[in-house]
Amino acid sequence: MLNCMLFNYWVIICGVDSTLLDSVTVVVPTLNEVEGIGLVLDELLGIGVPRERILVVDGGSTDGTVDVVRRYGVRVVRQEGRGKADAIWTALKHVNTPYMLVMDGDYSYPAKYVPVLIEEITSTGADEVIGIRVPQPGSQGFVYRLGNRLLTWAFNLLFSTRLHDVLSGMYIIRTESLRDAVMEVGDFSIEAQIVAHMVSTGKTVREVPIEYRPRVGRKKLSVFDGAKIFMDMAILTTRYNPMLILFLLGSLLLIPGLALGATLVIGTYSTALSTT
Ligand SMILES: Nc1nc2c(ncn2[C@@H]2O[C@H](COP(=O)(O)OP(=O)(O)OP(=O)(O)O)[C@@H](O)[C@H]2O)c(=O)[nH]1
Ligand SMILES: [Mg+2]
Fold first, then answer.
1. Which end of the chain has the lower number of beta carbons within 10 A, N or C?
2. Backbone angles phi, psi at 186, to 5 degrees
3. Calculated CA dihedral for residues 212, 214, 215, 217, nearest 10 degrees
4. Which residue(s) pair with 173 in the sheet?
5. Would 12 be classed as within a structural domain?
6. How confident is the model at residue 164, as a pLDDT?
7. CA–CA gap between residue 220 and residue 31 (Å, rounded)
8. CA-CA distance, 246 to 136, in Å (whole number)?
9. Is the Cβ atom of 232 under 6 angstroms away from ligand 1?
10. Are residues 276 and 231 in the same domain?
11. Which of 55, 65, 104, 151 has most ligand 1 atoms within 8 Å of CB, for mutation?
């Protein structure tokens, strides 16, 4: 971890080759982020991300978010469907670079980690690199932090992984690795689906620590969404890891099966005893 953090600082200070920055589309999903989106775009442009390599996918903001994006001369498209998951699938149709990096439009993810994620995916040949959120004071309440831990723990159990922050909103993927995925779950479960798709199709997922700042503007994610993500993980297991479901069902049937077998054996044995 220490090595990794030192390497991060090195990349943050030195930056990455501008041709590498050009191979990535930074996708920013937004829904009413008028307070944060300008700050996010300032930071992205400030670290040298080419303007034409930023794509804002808006979910129908009514607060002027789209006007702010247009003022920056940054590409903005209206998403198909509803929810964050549909925004990412919409983005995939517009992305024609080898890599796609996703980050929130609420200023919670510092843009200085964009080069860190790019460096990690290009130097290791991984298919996805997730930014493990290291919460800064005030960025994540106790309930959300606990919920995140529980959901990552559940994911690790269901997909035999050892990841640290499956639901992080900042990650980079090799675009082609996701082209064959079919949308299974919606809204805020998209991150879980992407990772489930990667790990169950033999792709490599890596992680690097990143700072997580308090968001600007109003939170969209609720505790209810956490419960829904958990249900969606179960759905994803049936799709991506059906052997586990069969194993669990088999184990459940084993108990009544053994009980029934034991009853029959005892019944037969006692009948045999009584007739002798
Ligand atoms: N296009 C689109 N973007 C959305 C939608 N819902 C949320 N978003 C954006 O997706 C990003 C993640 O949503 P957040 O509310 O920040 O959820 P979160 O990051 O899990 O939670 P906090 O940042 O801790 O509040 C933000 O940039 C939102 O504006 C949607 O339906 N469509
Ligand atoms: Mg956020």
1. C
2. -110, -170
3. 180
4. 100, 128
5. yes
6. 96
7. 8
8. 42
9. no
10. no
11. 104
Classify residue 229: in a domain, yes or no: yes
Question: 130 near 102, Cβ under 8 Å?
Answer: no
**How many domains would you assign to the chain?**
2
Is 133's C-beta closer than 6 angstroms to any atom of ligand 1? no
Examine the domain organization and report whether 61 and 24 are in the same domain: yes
Question: 236 and 261 share a domain?
Answer: no
Residues 72-102 as b or e (16 or more Cβ within 10 Å = b): bebbbeebeeebbbbbbbbbbeebeeebbbb
pLDDT digits over 202-213, tens only? 999 999 999 999
Higher pLDDT residue, 7 or 31? Answer: 31
Starting from the CA of residue 225, give the closest ligand: 1
- Is the CB of residue 29 below 6 angstroms from any atom belonging to ligand 1? yes
Range of the domain at 260: 251-276
3-state SS string for 213-230: CCCCCCCCCCHHHHHHHH
Report d(CA 247, CA 235) in Å as an integer.
16
Tokens of 243: 């052997």
Cβ atoms 189, 83 nearer than 8 A: no
Task: Annotate 160-172 with b (16+ C-beta within 10 A) or e (fewer).
Answer: ebebebbbbbbbb
To the nearest 10 degrees (0 to 180), the angle between helices 242-275 and 223-240 is: 70
CB 75 within 8 A of CB 14: no
pLDDT, residue 250, reads 75
Taking residue 270's Cβ as centre, other Cβ atoms within 10 Å add up to 10
**pLDDT 10s digits, 149-184:** 999 999 999 999 999 999 999 999 999 998 888 777
Q: Which of 188, 138, 143 is closest to 168 using CA atoms?
A: 188
